[in-house]
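Reply to dn_fold:

You asked what the input looked like. This is it:
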Amino acid sequence: MAQMERLCLAQYRPVNDSKAQASVKGQLAGVPTTGQMGTDGAWTRLRGGAKRVVLALVHGVSGVVWPPVVVTGEESAEPWEQLFRRAKAAGLDLHNLRGVSSDGSKGLVAYLRQSLPWVNHQRCVWHLWRGLARALAQCASRAVEGLVEAAAKAARDRTRGELVTLIRGIFDAASYQQAEVMLARLSEHPLGLGLAQSIWQVLDAALMHLLPYNQGLLRVAPEWYWRDYRLRLSHGRNHGSEDRLERAALLWAIYRNFEPAQWRCEHKRHYRHPGQSPLTVAGASPGDISYLDALGV
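and this is what came back:
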């Protein structure tokens, strides 16, 4: 245990918020990963109405957050290059990456194709569902043409239930072959052809987590991390400048990595590793060292 504590102290040398940027180099060196990551961004407003986005890279199995970056947008490859360059500086071996889950940012896709072509991209299933919401509503409306009141409601509910069951069978399939079977059934549904064509275009990206190469890859983008971020950092506000926002995000990442998850579950929320910190799950337990020790407080 004493050896592990010395290792963690070496990795997380004392810093304060004015030197948070300088603490990035080697911060997570030696922390094991499976190469399966997730990434997402949180938009915030600065003084004068300027908008910035905090990009974070998260290990899908342990939940370790690699040092975030603050950028002006996420639709080009350059901001994502900054994020992965910072993760590399912190100790992440980019050559060992295998997959990344996200909400489908075009900038991230472009960066992966240009710089990390061996890394597979998993589309967030939750975002795919949200993207189909309008088409589902239109199909349900077409099903009630010529009907009124109770008959219309029954037809709408029945049609929506049928389509949702078929789509769920695709996104939740245990194998690619099973997903193809369900996709064929959806295309044969009287109102499902348009939905099937839309899903076909993203089928590979939606099922990337089924590949043995991507075992452990998240099916959804790690959006839930921003809940803790906003609760911890004055609801994500009160950072008037870009520099202050970045320092706060870097400090939050250290806090998040050290802080154990609570034991009890909440309404609609269960913790994957109750009572354990992300570093502990990753196999680099900080022992009795708290995030305050890491920050030199």
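The CA atoms of residues 47 and 240 lie 5 Å apart.
Hope that clears it up.
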